[in-house]
Amino acid sequence: MAGKKVTIKDVAREAGVSVATVSYVVNGRTDLKISDETRKRVLQVINLLNYSPNQAAKALASKRKSQVGFAISDSSSILKIADQMHVMKTIAAFMGDKNYDVFLIPPSRFENYGQADALICYDLDKKTFASLGDCNFAPLLAFDCYINDSLFFQINTNLNRLKAAAEKKFKGAPYQYVMLETPNTEKKEFTNNTFDSVIYIDNPSDFDKLSCDNLLVSSEVLLDFVPKKYNVCYEPDITTDKLELLYKAYEQAAERIPIENHNLCI
């Protein structure tokens, strides 16, 4: 819908509801039975498409704050926590060069963060992602997690890039992909379908589960813990190109530019 004025019919189609339902939500009608789930989805589509039925709504979309929320999942794993802080530090440095400030959204504090233009959700499961979305009118971006909802950008590592690097390094010999444990079921399923053998690491003792001399590693945090006896192919998850893609998606989400391709892999 780029370059075209968004209408109430567009909102209704994207939200999967009637035009009347959109009208009721926009006008705050409480005398009609509209579920909270439907109301929230309509509001999310309105926000995403920058549908502005009045000047007040237009003004809301135009007020940029240069604040970036970074949401993480709950974890007791020292490796997972180290990874979360490493990724946040990397994104904060990158976004800082573009005059954005990044603040942490801990899992115990999922509430409304109106000071943010948009929220980056790192490796969240779909239920947690939805819970954060229910609290916020700001757009959400799924980073290193599979949400598979066309309302939201998702920016993930291209697993075929990792696979090609490992096959080149090991010249067809068997290898195991070693990655951090993830709460995102869809991410696990996609990863398991891409590689012949995947080992999920939650704690350093999990390295005892390795059964192959050749290892593919994409996490910089995990790389430091791999025993020296293994032959390692390191192909990083976080690259400059991936950060640039995240920034582009963030800018589009913050400006409420309609999504044409929501699934971004690099």
Can you walk through the features of this model?
- This protein has 266 residues and is an alpha/beta fold.
- The chain folds into three domains: 8-61, lambda repressor-like DNA-binding domains (434 Repressor (Amino-terminal Domain)); 63-156 and 240-265, Response regulator (Rossmann fold), CATH 3.40.50; 159-234.
- Helices cover 41% and strands 16% of the residues.
- The protein is built from ten helices and ten strands.
- The chain has a six-stranded parallel sheet with strand order 2-1-3-4-5-10, with helices on one face. The protein has a four-stranded parallel sheet with strand order 7-6-8-9.
- Helix 1 (8-15) crosses helix 3 (36-49).
- It is elongated and about 65 Å long.
- 30% of the residues are buried.
- Residues 55-61 have low confidence and may be disordered.
What's a concise summary of this model?
With 266 residues, the protein is α/β, with parallel strands linked by helices. The protein has helices at 8-15, 19-26, 36-49, 55-62, 78-96, 126-135, 159-170, 185-194, 220-223, 240-254, and strands spanning 67-71, 101-105, 118-122, 140-143, 153-156, 176-180, 198-201, 214-217, 231-234, 263-265. A 6-stranded parallel beta sheet has the order 2-1-3-4-5-10, with helices on one face.
